[in-house]
Amino acid sequence: MNAVLKDTAHNTAPLAAWGLTHCYEGSNVLRGVDLALEPGSVLGLIGRNGAGKSTLIRAMLGLLQPLSGSAFVFGEPALKLGDDAKARLAYVPQQPEALAWLTAQQMLDFVGRFYPRWDAEFARRTLERWKLQPNKLLAKLSPGERQRVDLIRALASQPELLVLDEPAAALDPVARRELLREVALRAGESGTTVLFSTHIVSDLERVASEIAFLHEGRLLLRCGVDETKERYARLWLPASKSAAAPAQALSRRRHDDGSLSLVVERDAQGRWPEAAGLPGARVDALGLEDLFVEIAE
Amino acid sequence: MKPMRLLALPWMALSRPWRKGIGICFALLFAALVIGGAVGRHHPAWTTHLGSATAFIDGLFWAGVLSQSLLLAREAHHLRLPTLGREVGASLALYVLLTIALPALLLAGLGGNAAVALTEIAMGAALGLAYATLPPYFGICACFAPSLGNHAGPWLPMPSTSPDRFLMWAVPCTALLWLLVGVFWRSAVRRDSGLSGARRPIMLNLRTLAWYGRNRSNYLEVQQIRRRWQWAQPVADLRHCGPDHPVRSLRIAMGGWSMPQTSASRWRQLGILLASMLLPGFVMTTITHGDDVLRSIFGNADMLLFALCIVGAVIALGQVQTLQRRWSRHNAELPLLALLPQLGDAARIKRELLLANLLPAFAVQALLMLAMLGLAAGLHLDGDSVAMLLLGQLTGMGMLATLALVMLGGVPVRDGWLVVLSTCGYLLVNLSVVLALPMVDDTPFIRLPAVAWAAAIAWAGLSVPLLRLGVRGWQGLQGRPHPFLPMA
Amino acid sequence: MDASLLTIQPNAPEPIYRQIVEQLRRLIAGGQLAAGELLPSVRDVAGFHAINPMTVSRAYGLAETEGLLERLRGKGMAVAATRRASQSESQRLALLEPQMLELARHARELELPAEPVLRRLTRLLGD
Predict the structure, then answer these.
(1) Do chains C and A touch (3 or more CB pairs under 8 A)?
(2) Are residues B203 and B237 in the same domain?
(3) Domain check: are B196 and B238 in the same one?
(4) How many domains does chain B have?
(5) pLDDT for residue B42 is more than 50
C-alpha cells in the first residue's frame, strides 16, 4: 500500500494497523498484519485458538508494545491515545477480571464517571434485564456473569468503536443472542464500528459485515461475509481429472482415492475456474464454517 | 505387587524437583535424628525424646509425602483403575509398618516404653495426614500440636512426665484422629469437584494452585474475596472519585488494603487485623503463663517495637505484591485503566500512579515510625539506637519505592532475584530492631564496632542493587508510552 | 407482516440477504403477503433475528429493484401495488424450479425411473 493511501486510511479508519509483528518467548504470534476498519463496519476476526487474535487486538489498541509495526485508533497512535479517542472506544477483554473487589453497581458507577456520554439508565436497565445482582461483588460472579457486566460497562459508554475479544465464549446461547442483537443494532443505527474476535462462526455470520481470517499470525483472507459465501466454493475433482486442477486455490487436499478437493474463487467475471466444467467435477457452496475448516486445516 | 513399587508410589505423585527437594530434606532430618540419638544416648530419658522426635518427623513425612497418595487414590477412582486403587492401599499399609510399627519396635528394643512410643508416633503420623487431608480448619489445629506439646505440659500428661496417664488420653485421641482421616479420605476420593474451597483438603487446594502457575497470586486474591464473610469484606468508598480526583480513583482501581474505604469498613478491617494478630499471642500466653495475659502482651515494649517493625515491612511487601498482581494480568485492570479517558496525559498518569501506590504505604509507615520513636523515648534508647530504628523503616520505604518502580517501569527481573532481594530487605528491617535494643548488658549491639561494621556492609550490600534497580525502573517508566503495559 | 415470518439460517452457504429476498419472493407469489401490505422495519427484522441491519437493508433494496417491494414515503417498505395477489401458475411453478432440479438429480443418482417418483409425488400432493 503506498504512503498516500495509508495516510488517508489513518485519518478515516476508526482502527488501523500496519505491519504488526509480535512474539512471545521466541515464537512469532503476529507476522506483519495489516488491518483497517471502515466506519460503521462490523468486522469478525476469526481464527483457531492460539492464532494470535487476542494479541492482534491488544496490539491494535496499544495495550502491548509490538516488536514492529504501528496501530492507530481514530488516527491517533494507539500507544499514546488522547482522552477524546479513549472516550470513543470501548474494549472488553477475553474473560474480564477487573476490579473484583467492587460490586457490579460500584464498578459501573466508578467507570461511568470518566465517560462523558455514559448512559447510566442503560446500565441499570440492562443489569436488570440480564438478571445480574447489582450488589454482588464481581469476584463472586461466574465468568459468564462477569463478562456480561463488562459488556454493559462497554456498551453504556456509548462507544463509536467497540472491540470485543471472544465475547461469546462464556455466554449461554440466550445471552449470546442478546449480545449479538445489541451489537447489530448499534452498528446499524448509531454507526458504531465493531471489531470482535470469535471462533464461533455462526455468531459472525449473523452480525459481521466483514470477516478476517487470522491463521498462524497472518491474515489469510479479508472479505465481506456475503461476498465470501458467493465467491468461494469447494471444487471436487475425481482422480482422473485431478491433473486439470487450477493452479490457484486457497487450499488443496488430496484424498486417499486420488480425488482432489480445492477451495476455489470466482474470477472477475464471476466464473468458476475451467476445471469446474469437466465431467465428474462438482462445485459445492461453502458455509463460512466449512471454508474456515478447509483453510485452517 | 512389588514392595519397591509400593514404596515408590506416593513419590510418583510429586513432580521431579519436588521429589528431589523433599527427599533431600527427609534424608537430612533422618540423619539428624540418628546423630542426635547417638549423641544423647546417655541422657536418662533419651528414648522418650527420640520417640517425640520420630513422631515429629513422621508427622512431616505423612503430611508431605504420604498425603500424595490421596491424589493417586482420587485419580484411580475417577479413571476407574481398581488395581492402582488397591496398590495405593497396600502402599499405605506398608508405610504404616515401616514408619510407625518399626520405629516403635526399635525404641522398645533400645529400652523405651513400646506402647507410649507406638501411640506417640501414630499420633504424629495421623496429625501430619490430618493436616493434608482434612479441611483446612482442622489442618490449622494440627499445626498447633507441636507447640501444644511444649506448652501444655503443666496440665496435660506427657510421655516424659507420666507415660501411663499420657496413654489414657492419647490412645483414644489417636484412634479418633485416624478414624476422622479415614472418613475424610474416603469422601475426598469419591466426591467429585463438588467440595467447596473451605471444605477441600489443603492437599487438593495446593494441586489446584499449581495449575495457575504465575497467576497463582491473583487466583488467591479472588478466592480470598470469595470466601470472606459479607461483613468482613472491605467496602470501597466511591465518594470523591472520578476525573477530578485521579489519585483517589487510581487507589480504587489498585484495590488491596490501601483502597479508599468507608470509615465503618476501615474500622472493621482494623479490628479484624488486630484480633487476628492478637489472638494467637493471647492463646499461647494463656497456655504458657496463665495469668496477666494482657500485661505480657502489651507490657513488653521490646516486643511492641518488633511488632511495629514487622508491620511496616509487611506493608511494604504487601503493596509490592499488589502491584505485581495488577501488572501480571492483561485482562483485568490494565486494559481498563489504559483506555480510561480523563486520567490525564501519560506523564501525569505515571506521576499519579506512583503517588497512588506509594502514598498510603508511606503514610502508614510514617505513623509507625512515630509510634516507634515514642516507644524508643519510653525505653530511653540513645541516639544510635533511634537512628538504627529510623534506618530500618527507611529501608522498608526504599524497598517499596524501588520495587514499585521495577514493576511500573517494566524492568525485566527474574522472580527469584526479586524474592531474594525482598527477603534480605525484610530480614534487615527486622535486624534493625535487634541491633537497636539493649539486649545484653544494657548496650545495644550497634554500639559494638564489629557489629556496626557488619551492619554497614549489609546495608550497603542491599542498597547498591536497590538503587540500580530503582534507577532502571525510573528510566523504564519514563520511557514507556503509558504505564499500563503488562509485565513481560 | 411480522419479522417472525422470515426464517434465517446464518450458517447456510446462501448469504442472509439472499435468504430474505428468496422468502419475500415466495411469500408474495403465494399470496401470503398482499399488495400494499407493510413490511416490518429493518430494525425489527434485524433485532428479532439478531442480524446486521445492513444485511436487511440490502435485501429490501434488492427486492425493491426487482419490483417486489416499494418504498412508501414515511411508512417504510410495502409489497409493491403492481404485484397481483397471486401470480400466474407458470410463474409460481418457476419458483419451484431449483427444488425440481434437485429432486430430478437425486432420482437419477438413485437410478429410479420417473414413474414411481411421480406416483409418490402425486400422493404427497394429496390427490
Answers:
(1) yes
(2) no
(3) no
(4) 2
(5) yes
